[in-house]
Give the backbone structure.
Amino acid sequence: MSLLKNIIKGFKSHPAQEDARLKEVIKLYEGILNTYEGMASVKKVSKNINRETPELTEAEYQALAKEVKMVRSNIVKPGK
């Protein structure tokens, strides 16, 4: 997820950061990050995240996959 954090950081520093579409994409990406960071298995290792890798449950994987699919669909077909 550090890659996603860096992508969001890059978007926020982009010269077109006031563009409504870019703001929407940033919001969508932040949603994925918030979903991930809110998962119990991630919270469990959050203090040791550099030494431990969270082991997501099947339900957590499914929730994250659903979020990613929604974001991907929104980027490919905006407004749907």
About this structure: Residues 2-76 form one domain. The chain has a mean pLDDT of 88. The CA atoms of residues 41 and 55 lie 6 Å apart. The two ends are 26 Å apart (CA to CA).
